[in-house]
Write a structure and sequence with these properties.
The chain is mainly alpha-helical and 386 residues long. 72% of the residues lie in helices and 3% in strands. A hairpin with a 4-residue loop joins strand 2 and strand 3.
Length: 386
Amino acid sequence: MEGQEGEQQPHLVLAHKLFLLKHSDVQDIEKVRLQEEVLTSIKADDMAPLYERLVADKVFELDTVLLESMKAKMEEDLKKLDDKIADAELNLGETEVREAHLSKALFYIRISDKEKALEQLKVTESKTVAVGHKMDLVFHTLQIGFFYMDFELISKSIDKAKNLFEEGGDWERKNRLKVYEGLYCMASRNFKKATNLFLDSISTFTTYELFPYTTFIFYTVLTSIISLDRVSFKQKVVDAPEILAVIGKIPHLSSFLNSLYGCQYKDFFLAFAGLTQQIKMDNYLHPHFRYYMREVRAVVYGQFLESYKSVTIEAMASAFGVSVDFIDLELSTFIAAGKLHCKIDKVAGILETNRPDAKNALYQATIKQGDFLLNRIQKLSRVIDL
């Protein structure tokens, strides 16, 4: 994929900086630098609507002269765009009219005026015939959704894109949509579906407007670890040439991946500690930080216990490079939550695995669902009797 990279959309780069500005773990001196960079971007693109929001959020102090100058420049640019639309409608063809309306929509996206951008994109869509061009408008809408983390807008836009593909559409745009949907699934904690979509796109990735290819690999590996079984993980991730080509560029990720598969648990925990800050500082993964930390630990503890009928707590603590008290507390939490199938014999200092067989698990699930169904029927019968 190298040598073909495009650039990430400036407003998505800006969205990440705005996220870091509000992050409690970012140092004050770093926030000062970020404020300067954000303000520079706002001035460069005359983003008066965004500036007003950030002033209201107390990120910046109001500079009336700056705000008025940006608004004046906005009005001037809007007049030029409206004149271009009027000229196209009067003197030119349908293609030029559509392009003029699209330019106005992109202008609203650039200055971060969400409502007007969405409204103008709808106007542009009404002037658009080709399915491919309609899909491009949906991608612009999705980018707005990711800038504001508006999951309802993203979900509706993905559904709309899928409906458009039933009318036709090229493979390149279909593959791009998989990455958009995968990012949405990851950001809304559906890691399994995100993994499948990311892996489907790994050799056809062209969605550089969302993030660089290294970031895509970072997301793919992180979601795969908690979603795939060991055999699939080896085939699709550990041995994937696309991943091997770039994984070394991402700090700690190669060690994180290979130490898990190679059962080098001390190295795994060290690499995991190195990755936690990257996960925390990612605006899509940050809301799921605690959940992800828990799921990864459940996976690695489960993998260790898979090899034993019983093992001493001390041996497990030694394998992970932690104290006996720590591993005892960790395992008791996961056992209580049903994440691990084992029991702790504190007196003997051993762990005994009690993994249920597939038939027994199916039987228990059937009983549980049957009880649930009977309860629903009883509630329904009371309503009917009334």
